[in-house]
Amino acid sequence: MTLVGASATGPDLLRLVAVPVFAWVAVRDIKTRRVSSGVWIPLAVLGLCTLVWEGRLAWAAGGYAWRYEFLIPTAVSLGFVVPIAYLFWWFGGFGGADAKALLVLALLFPTFPQYTIGSWTLPLTTTPIGTFSFTILTNAVVVGLAIPLVIAVRNAAAGRITSVMVIGWPVSWEAIPETHGRLLETPEGRSRGGLDLDALRMYLRWRGLSLADVRENPDQYRDPATLPAEPNPPTDGAVTAVVRGDGGAALEANESNANTSNEHDDPWGTEAFLADIEGTAYGTTPAELREGLEVLVQKDTVWISPGAPFLVPVFVGLAVALIYGDLLIGAVL
């Protein structure tokens, strides 16, 4: 908020503390797709403190600053951006961390800040509504929509012209255990929706196996008789989880009962896995897991979609908003 005669208020300066935190969570979202809920609590407290502080400054400054520079933007931020974040999370459009990030931004940046650096005053543009969190949200959406275009250009430049070139790219099977996203292939061909790689990691950890183990002896591991007598904790599928790998020891006890035929009632033991664990493994069905395993034991290179780590567009949207302002308004005007 810009009060008369002020280039940057105390609350606006304090809000800059959040910028490196959002940069950190964006990097973590890329690497692990996991952000602890504990990150958002201090930022929410900071947002409440700066909101109260700014409200007092606006009240002291008088009617216009209170009504038009603080009250209306804050009402839009809390009454519009917060419900949008909740609804998108409710309907599955956002992950939990994405929704929490937007809720925190609604508290932290309800009004447009102003920072003077030499002869420059940032952001360079404002909006008629003056709600900064809404500008961050629209910037994030614009950046998010640009990601498929970047992926398509990258694939086209490499000569990879395919039906899924807008949402994914090929990777070696060796990279799959450390890769986030969704498999874009089934035994029948390319697909826009396949096995969630977090669910794959859960399955392999439950069996105490590596993907290399499975590729080396696929006929053996298709037989549900080779499932471990005491399954391992599947974890949540995060690449950083600590894994107990004792699949070989468990298999020695069951190997004599293994069926050498390729016909099984529950190939790969996918139904047994999903019935044994808590939860649904990100909505994965036995058929999806089974088809994904068949692809991964046959192909050396597979197409995956990295998904959309939305915290990355959120951080970029925040950085652009602080420097430039609203991308959408700038494009229209």
TrEMBL record:
<feature type="region of interest" description="Disordered">
    <location>
        <begin position="217"/>
        <end position="237"/>
    </location>
</feature>
<dbReference type="InterPro" id="IPR009655">
    <property type="entry name" value="Preflagellin_peptidase_C"/>
</dbReference>
<dbReference type="GO" id="GO:0005886">
    <property type="term" value="C:plasma membrane"/>
</dbReference>
<dbReference type="GO" id="GO:0004190">
    <property type="term" value="F:aspartic-type endopeptidase activity"/>
</dbReference>
<feature type="domain" description="Preflagellin peptidase C-terminal">
    <location>
        <begin position="287"/>
        <end position="327"/>
    </location>
</feature>
<dbReference type="InterPro" id="IPR052218">
    <property type="entry name" value="Preflagellin_Peptidase"/>
</dbReference>
<feature type="transmembrane region" description="Helical">
    <location>
        <begin position="70"/>
        <end position="89"/>
    </location>
</feature>
<keyword id="KW-0472">Membrane</keyword>
<feature type="transmembrane region" description="Helical">
    <location>
        <begin position="39"/>
        <end position="58"/>
    </location>
</feature>
<protein>
    <submittedName>
        <fullName>Peptidase A24</fullName>
    </submittedName>
</protein>
<keyword id="KW-1133">Transmembrane helix</keyword>
<feature type="domain" description="Prepilin type IV endopeptidase peptidase">
    <location>
        <begin position="17"/>
        <end position="145"/>
    </location>
</feature>
<dbReference type="Pfam" id="PF06847">
    <property type="entry name" value="Arc_PepC_II"/>
</dbReference>
<dbReference type="InterPro" id="IPR000045">
    <property type="entry name" value="Prepilin_IV_endopep_pep"/>
</dbReference>
<keyword id="KW-0812">Transmembrane</keyword>
<feature type="transmembrane region" description="Helical">
    <location>
        <begin position="101"/>
        <end position="120"/>
    </location>
</feature>
<keyword id="KW-1003">Cell membrane</keyword>
<dbReference type="Pfam" id="PF01478">
    <property type="entry name" value="Peptidase_A24"/>
</dbReference>
<feature type="transmembrane region" description="Helical">
    <location>
        <begin position="310"/>
        <end position="332"/>
    </location>
</feature>
<feature type="transmembrane region" description="Helical">
    <location>
        <begin position="132"/>
        <end position="153"/>
    </location>
</feature>
